[in-house]
Amino acid sequence: MAQNYNTKNDNSSKLLMGVLVGAAVGAAIALLDSNTREQVKTGSKNVGSSTSGFVRNVKDNPGEFKNDLSGRFQSAVSTLKNAMSEAQSLYEKVNEDVVPQVEAIRESASDIVDTAKEATEDAKDIGGQVADAGSEVKEGVSSSAGSTGSTGSSSSNDSVVQLNKKSQNTVDASPQGDIPGDVGRNK
């Protein structure tokens, strides 16, 4: 494990060294341009003069600097306290308003899921009953057809469709078993 740590440190050192060398080479190449050199000189003078002015102000008026710095810290602390108070209020509001609503939604969703499961079970039961009813109808039709075929005679009284007496007499009187008249007959 110590060897891995040393390897990582070596890699980090190599990376840092590469970054520093690259920055130095980049800065040297940039300074080859006269405009860049002038900007670096001007910027350095400005930084130097502002720093010396700041140091001079601190030397001349240390109490004012201290009061100014203290005022800035107090302002930052006040702003931070205000932000923390608002964050606490937001946290309380979320706990009082949002969390109960989320809990109610979760319970409602649970109830909906339970109701859907019950409806699914009921639908399966209904489907089973419909299937049973279909089987019963099928068995009734096939047993009626099977009893007609087993006797060898096919009378119109044994058919599934029942006709009233007048219609049955008309069908029986027809030599071809169809309704007399011009419909369906060849002349």
Summarize the structure.
By secondary structure, this protein is mostly helical.
Distance between the termini: 111 Å
The share of residues in helices is over 70%
Spans with pLDDT under 50 lasting ≥5 residues?
149-160
Rg, Å, rounded = 51 Å
| Topology, number of strands | 0
**How many DSSP helices?**
4
Structural class: mainly alpha
Order of helices and strands: HHHH
Share of residues in strands: under 5%
Q: What do the pLDDT scores average to?
A: 76
Query: Biggest sheet, in brief?
Result: none
Indicate the overall shape.
elongated
Write up this protein.
It is elongated, with a radius of gyration of 51 Å. Helix 2 (34-60) crosses helix 3. The protein has four helices and no strands. Mean pLDDT is 76; it is low at 149-160. By secondary structure, the chain is mainly α. This is YtxH domain-containing protein. The chain crosses the membrane at residues 15-32. Keywords: Membrane, Transmembrane, Transmembrane helix. Residues 142-156 have a biased composition (Low complexity). Residues 41-54, 157-173 have a biased composition (Polar residues).
How are the elements arranged and paired?
Blueprint: H1 2-30, H2 34-60, H3 62-151, H4 165-173
Helix pairs in contact: 2-3
What would the keywords be for this entry?
187 residues; mainly alpha; 4 helices; 0% strand; membrane; YtxH domain-containing protein; transmembrane
